[in-house]
Amino acid sequence: MLGLIAILAATPSWSQTLGTATSTNQTARRSGSQEMDLPLRREHLYELNFRTRYLSVPNSILDIWFFDNDSDGANPYARPKVRAYTAGIEFVTKKEPANWIFYFEYMGNLMDEGYWDDVEKPAAHDDGDWVRPDGLGMLVLGANYGQEVRATDWWSFVFGGGIGMGVMLGDLTTWGPGASGDNREEGCLSESPAYIRKETCPDDGAKTIPSVLPVVDITISSRFHLGDQANLR
């Protein structure tokens, strides 16, 4: 059930990067009596950038699989918001309008612990799990392609996407309902829901999450060119 949370946390997001570009304003001088410098044309520009991203899963998507506390008859515990941040570096090679982006980043968890109640018919709001992220994160290696469309000399748009691979870190520690056969200590509040058991009983272990997950990026970004030396995307 909760492996889905980790997968959804890797959904597409807006990207923000601050980069330094190699200038094209270089010159060369011919041998002999050539008195003036001639432009040296380079086909590609290269960037080494710092990148950060904010990731989230819309409630409208989570509502498909999990109840929230505003559902009819639900308990008062709000479903945690699935959020994360990333920080890393990227290498970019550019030949307008094409951008090839190769990146490595760390994804850190921003999701609080809380109650997860599966959608089912008829609804049973006391059979969910209490979940606590412990050191949850991901190391991501990926590659994107972006098509750049210039609006002005200093402003452009980048559209594209790519794929990557994420290695999971940490655990999702859980407490199940008392009636569950997965409980580590069967005699501890055996008739109580998870949100009560977590106050007294030891945890029931960690949910199984795949150690490697795919990452899909969809890029829709605006880029501001700060001269020939830097840009903000």
List keywords for this structure.
233 residues; mainly beta; 8-stranded antiparallel barrel; two-stranded antiparallel sheet; 7% helix; elongated; disordered N terminus
Which series of helices and strands comes N to C?
A: HEEEEHEEEEEEHEE
| C-alpha end-to-end distance | 36 Å
User: How many domains comprise the coordinates?
Assistant: 1
Helix fraction?
under 10%
How would you characterize the overall build of this protein?
With 233 residues, this protein is mainly beta. Helices cover 7% and strands 50% of the residues. It has 3 helices and 12 strands. The strands form 2 sheets. The chain has an 8-stranded antiparallel β-barrel. The protein has a two-stranded antiparallel ribbon with strand order 2-3. A hairpin with a 3-residue loop joins strand 11 and strand 12. The longest helix has 7 residues, at 194-200.
Outline the fold blueprint.
Elements: H1 3-8, E1 15-21, E2 27-28, E3 38-39, E4 45-56, H2 59-62, E5 66-67, E6 83-95, E7 98-109, E8 114-118, E9 129-150, E10 155-175, H3 194-200, E11 212-226, E12 230-232
Antiparallel strand pairs: 1-4, 1-12, 2-3, 4-6, 5-8, 6-7, 7-9, 8-9, 9-10, 10-11, 11-12
Task: Put the structure in a nutshell.
The chain has helices spanning 3-8, 59-62, 194-200, and strands spanning 15-21, 27-28, 38-39, 45-56, 66-67, 83-95, 98-109, 114-118, 129-150, 155-175, 212-226, 230-232. With 233 residues, the protein is mostly beta strands.
